[in-house]
Design brief:
A hairpin with a 2-residue loop joins strand 1 (13-16) and strand 2. The chain contains four helices and five strands, in the order αβββαββαα. It is globular. It has a five-stranded mixed sheet with strand order 2-1-4-5-3, with helices on both faces. It has 126 residues and is α/β, with parallel strands linked by helices. It has one domain. The chain binds zinc ion.
Length: 126
């Protein structure tokens, strides 16, 4: 697998209200033109650089066991964003990529971040 293919398999994991909705979007890049949703909480990412087996163990429940590079696990209720990165086979740009998810950026055409925000607002309004 070449680097480009690896990057296209970055995954975005989401966690909301302890119910897990994971998605593995097969896009390499981040959409930086669409601003984060209004009200997206400021979260300081907690970054873990770990072995590949450990990274897979942490990410697989949300994005599947074929995750490459790393994942970001976002919990809007707790306002935490935990990033797990593969330190055995690090992928260039993985940390920056996942940090942008923490900041509320999605993949081009992605709906995960906005959907999370809508679910979060709905939950808060109850
Ligand atoms: Zn991503």
């Amino acid at each position: 697998m070449n680097r480009r293919q690896q990057q296209s398999r970055f995954s975005l994991a989401v966690m909301l209200l302890l119910s897990l909705s994971g998605c593995a979007l097969l896009y390499a890049s981040i959409d930086e033109h669409t601003p984060p949703p209004v009200g997206w909480p400021k979260m300081v990412p907690e970054v873990h650089k770990v072995s590949q087996p450990k990274m897979r163990e942490e990410c697989a429940p949300y994005v599947g066991s074929d995750v490459v590079g790393g994942c970001a696990i976002i919990d809007l209720m707790a306002k935490t964003c935990v990033i797990w990165l593969d330190n055995d086979f690090p992928v260039d740009g993985a940390e920056i990529h996942e940090r942008k998810h923490c900041a509320g950026y999605d993949h081009p055409g992605g709906k995960t971040i906005s959907r999370m925000m809508n679910e979060y607002k709905t939950a808060e309004a109850k």
